[in-house]
Specification:
Shape: globular
Radius of gyration: 16 Å
Strand order of the largest sheet: 3-2-4
Number of strands: 5
Strand content: 15-25%
Mean pLDDT: 88
Structural class: alpha+beta
Helix content: 25-40%
Order of helices and strands: EEHHEHHEE
Largest sheet: 3 strands, antiparallel
Low-confidence stretches: none
Oligomer: single chain
Number of helices: 4
Length: about 120
């Protein structure tokens, strides 16, 4: 095991996000997604080590738009179909955030690698 010098945010869609996803594609009743369909699709964001709630809040205040846009992009690449107001209120309504102070790499076989996002996709 290797301790990674990062904290982590687990970002999970809320029911409001699922409702928006269902609006993207007209479906009838049982074809609609439900929260249980996407709850397991959380995204983990590695962030600088955070040792206080204040530091974490400040970091999220600074990066919420990057996270929100990335999550919206995962479901719909056409920004014209995104909600009209992509702001902190939407972030709070659409996403549930869980913070982990420590990140540990359990893979003893492979070296941890990182890939860069293209500039227009950079979070």
């Amino acid at each position: 095991m290797k301790l990674v010098n990062r904290s982590a945010l687990s970002v999970t869609p809320t029911q409001a996000f699922v409702d928006w996803i269902n609006l993207l594609e007209a479906t009838a009743g049982e074809d609609d997604l439900i929260l249980a369909d996407v709850e397991h699709e959380s995204t983990i964001y590695l962030i600088p080590e955070m040792d206080s709630e204040e530091a974490l809040r400040a970091y999220i205040d600074d990066r919420y738009l990057d996270i929100l846009e990335n999550e919206l992009q995962a479901w719909e690449s056409d920004e014209r179909l995104w909600p009209d107001e992509v702001d902190r209120a939407l972030f709070d309504r659409f996403l549930r955030i869980e913070h982990s102070y420590l990140a540990v790499d359990l893979d003893d076989e492979e070296t941890l690698e990182a890939s860069e996002f293209a500039d227009d996709d950079d979070i």
